[in-house]
Design goal:
By secondary structure, the protein is mainly β. The protein has a single domain, classed as Tachylectin-2, Chain A. Strands 17, 18, 19, 20 and 21 form a 5-stranded antiparallel β-sheet that branches. A hairpin with a 6-residue loop joins strand 7 and strand 8. The longest helix has 5 residues. GO terms for molecular function: beta-fructofuranosidase activity. Pfam families: Glyco_hydro_32N.
Length: 336
């Protein structure tokens, strides 16, 4: 588990150099007292481990750039890949002072060793107004364009980026979509139409991750209960970590079929393979049963396919979260 005495930690992502796991995470000082203030103070921290359990904090990876820059207020969630030239690329979210923290853009930092990172202070990927909601549209408190998940395109050509985004059309509480962009070289990016449809029941799909777990593709995302669609909230659904089974990773994602993997005591589920090749999920501890904020990252939790659904081992998950039971095909769940 990663718990820092001086800082809260929340959203996170991994890189694996073959020797050590590198954990990058959002952090903000506990001296803020109110955890709701953390978002505008966020920087990207860094810790290393050989077993995903014991972590050693090292120097922070990225802090906000000097103004003016797309990330001169705070630096948010991202992902890391290794380019064909051997350098590491971290694609991350930035918010700026000019936009009062409400306009999100994607930038990149580079590193030769995962320890020292260089940024440009320049937005690399921005939403295309033909398909994606803008702040001026007034449908949401901010302009959602964040949490880039970058991976080699399953087609075998180039790289794909999945993003937390919102469509320009549809009932405002259900406009959450999977945004996407494509690149041949990780430098120039082409924004493309959403990879999912509106009306799937989510205001936004946070911290996406697409992986092939034991031969089956799955898409993970997180959504709080307060950000579910009006219909889902009226039906009594709750938020947490969600999964979508994927038959074809190149096809649109069927977000309406999402089912919950864990409740809101955990958030931002991330899949990672341990040194034995077994798939694990880690998450950040979001709240206690009474709703108090926590802000630390769990130990690995084994996952497996059970009755066609990605499932966290109950004996481990139960230490942190009430297991989800009784999920319907539409994703409606009843807490045990």
């Amino acid at each position: 588990m990663l718990r820092l005495a001086a800082s809260w930690v929340w959203d996170f992502w991994f890189a694996d150099d073959g020797d050590r796991f590198h954990l990058f995470f959002l952090k903000a000082s506990r001296a803020l007292h109110d955890p709701d203030r953390r978002h505008w103070r966020a920087t990207i921290g860094h810790a290393v481990s050989t077993d995903l359990v014991e972590w050693t904090e090292v120097a922070d990876a990225i802090v906000p750039s000097d103004a003016p820059a797309f990330d001169d207020l705070a630096t948010w969630t991202g992902s890391v890949v290794r380019a064909d030239d051997g350098t590491w690329r971290m694609f991350y979210t930035g918010v700026d002072r000019a936009g009062s923290g409400l306009v999100q853009r994607i930038g990149v930092a580079t590193s030769d060793d995962l320890m020292t990172w260089s940024t440009t202070g320049r937005a690399l990927v921005e939403p295309d107004a033909r398909w994606y909601e803008q702040l001026a549209d007034g449908g949401w408190p901010d302009e959602a364009w964040r949490d880039p998940w970058v991976f080699r395109d399953p087609s075998g050509e180039g790289w794909r980026m999945l993003l937390t985004a919102r469509a320009k059309v549809g009932e405002p509480s259900s406009r959450g979509v999977v945004g996407t962009a494509w690149s041949a070289d990780l430098v120039e990016w082409r924004v493309e139409p959403p990879r999912s449809t509106v009306g799937s029941g989510f205001g936004q799909l946070e911290v996406l991750q697409l992986e092939q777990v034991d031969g089956r593709w799955v898409l993970l995302f997180s959504c709080l209960g307060s950000e579910l669609s009006a219909d889902r909230q009226a039906a009594g659904e709750r938020g947490g970590i969600w999964a979508v089974n994927v038959d074809d990773p190149a096809a649109p994602f069927d977000i309406a079929s999402a089912y919950r993997v864990a409740d809101e005591q955990l958030y931002v589920g991330r899949l990672v393979r341990d040194r034995a090749g077994r798939w694990q999920m880690m998450a950040f501890r979001n709240t206690t049963p009474d709703g108090s904020w926590v802000g630390e990252i769990t130990d690995p939790m084994p996952v497996a396919w059970v009755d066609g659904r990605l499932t966290v081992a109950a004996d481990v998950a139960g230490r942190f979260v009430t297991p989800v039971a009784g999920a319907s095909p539409a994703g409606v769940t009843a807490d045990a």
